[in-house]
Structure formats: C-alpha cells, structure tokens
Amino acid sequence: MDIAQLRDFIAVIDSGSFTRAASVLFVSQPAVSQRMKQLESELGVRLVQRGPRGVVPTPAGRTLYRDAQQLIRRFDQIAEDVAKEPRAIRGPVAVGLPTAAAVHLAPALFSWTKRHYPGVRLRLFESVSGYIQELLTVGRMDLAVLYRDDAAPRPAETPLYSEELYLVGRSDAEEPPRGGRAAGSAGTGAAAADTAAYGDISLADMLRVPLVAPGARSNLRVLIDRVFTEHGAAPVIAADVESLGTMVRIAESGEACALLPLSSVEALRSTPDLMVRRVVDPVIERHIAVCAGSDYYEPRDAVSVVRHGIVQVTTRLAEQGAWPGIRPAARTEPRAGRP
User: Fold this and answer.
1) Which tens digit of pLDDT belongs to each residue from 172-217?
2) Start and end of every HTH lysR-type domain (predicted)?
3) What is the DSSP string of 64-117?
4) Domains of the chain by range and CATH?
C-alpha cells in the first residue's frame, strides 16, 4: 500500500463512483477498479461496495478513509515543513463551523489568521452541526466547532463558550404567556433591551407553540427534543428547516416560532419588532467546544495556532459585544491526548 493508492481510494469514496473518480484522477474507469481490487487484496478486506447511491465504503473502508485523510494531509505537509523558514508556521488547516457560529467566527478568524500567521491557509467549511461532526470523525477536518450537552472536559477539546436559547417569533404565532418576567442579563445594548421588552417565557407556555427547527442530524434539534421529553412533553414541529436564515424569516412572518441562540437572531433578523423571549423553567443552554481531529496525538503547529486563534477571537468578540448572548468559557489549556 502506498500514498498513490490511498489518494485513489479517497477519490472513489468522495466521488461515489469509479467513473467519476476516474475523471478526477485522469485515468480510465477500469484502471480505478483494478487499483481498488489490488488495494483490497493487499489489505485482505473488502473496502467498497455498490449501493443505491453508488459506491460506498464498508466499515473497514470507513476506517481506512478516516486514517488515509489524516495521513495524506500530513504527507502533503512534509515538503512545506522541510522547506519553510526557521520558526515560521505554515500549512493548510481545515476548520468546520456550524452556521450559527460561522456567522460571527469565520470572518474574524480569517482576519486574525491572516494578520498573525500569514503562512497558514484556512479551509473553512460551514454546515449543520451533525455534518460537521461527521467530517471531523472521518478525518476531513483538522478542527471543528461542535455543540456539547455539558461543559465537562474531553480529550482533544477546548471549551469555547456557552449560550442559551430564546423563543423567536411574533405575538400571533404563540399562545399568550401566563405572566412573563423581566428578562435576565442575556446580552448588552439593543439585544438586552429587546429581550427585556418581551419578558421570559417558560417551557409550559410553549407547549402549543408551532416551531420550525432543524432536522434530526442537528444538535439544536436533539437539544430541543431532549428538553421537552424530560418535561413530559413534545415540541410542536411545524416544519424541519435546515437553514438558520430561513427559520428567522419564518419567525418574522408570524406563521411559526423558532428556538434559537440570541447571536443567530441578532445576526439574521431583518425587523426590529421581532419578539425575542428568554426561555426559562428550564433555561435551555448548550455548550460549545473547539475539537481537534484526533485525541491520540498533539496536532501540528498550524492546527494548534488556529485553535488558539479561535479561542482568542471568540473571547474578544464577546468582550466587545459583537457576539451577543454567548458566555466565553474560562481559559484553560486543551487536555493532552492519549500517548
């Protein structure tokens, strides 16, 4: 087995067919098929199989795909590491960002990296949280910002921030609350004034409120379903919507409401009279961490500095009031990986 075979294998899995992989690799389709058979023969396991959606990896193939991604990225980095000037940090770093975080974090991280480490080339991926998790697991990402149910430390993770969820909508989309209370300190400036104007709302007051929410792959949907279930209820989901912007637009229309972090609402709202209520009894909170691609070894220098940059940028934006509704985690060093 060599690097060329691994590149061919990755191309097949990414393309989903031998024909498309052959086009990417500039070889014939029979040549690609033969190379896959040779690789399977050398490893003694079946790596791919044909399914309804084309060529897909077997369990052994998924393991090889994940490890091959990491190995090839490291292999491609060797030449740059050898040639780079002393003490300079260079190389590509792939970072996965869920949309709610990307709105604020991506532009600021790009500027920070360009200013402090011009030799580092960012590769930013934005998608729903579940897909970002999958990309990290299979080795496509060096770093990913991911949601967690609690703030407990985990290997290869650095706590980033916590945030609460708010009910967003118009008065004609929800049942009148049974006595709202003045909102707590949920943010600064206009955001805090908006939430205070409409008061808090309890989970009991939302049982008949129609909601739009992401599908089952999203951490936000998992969190919403879990909190309602823990209180013996089920959310009234009017539609599965995978776009934050679309959820805010529907909330603004008055047809349904959404449960969103304040930062997403403030970044995407287009009308100042949108009702934003802090959810209480219980408070719905989620925790966010920046996660490295592996907990078995320390990441290379370029990955480490970008991870540091993500923490620095998040803290600065929160302190400046430019990322409303988030509470930065206490500064801690990432836990060392297993030897």
Assistant:
1) 665 544 444 433 333 433 344 344 446 799 999 999 999 999 988 7
2) 1-58
3) HHHHHHHHHHHHHHHHHHHHSPTT---EEEEEEEEHHHHHHHHHHHHHHHHHH-
4) 3-78 (1.10.10.10), 91-161+287-328 (3.40.190.10), 164-174+198-285 (3.40.190.10)
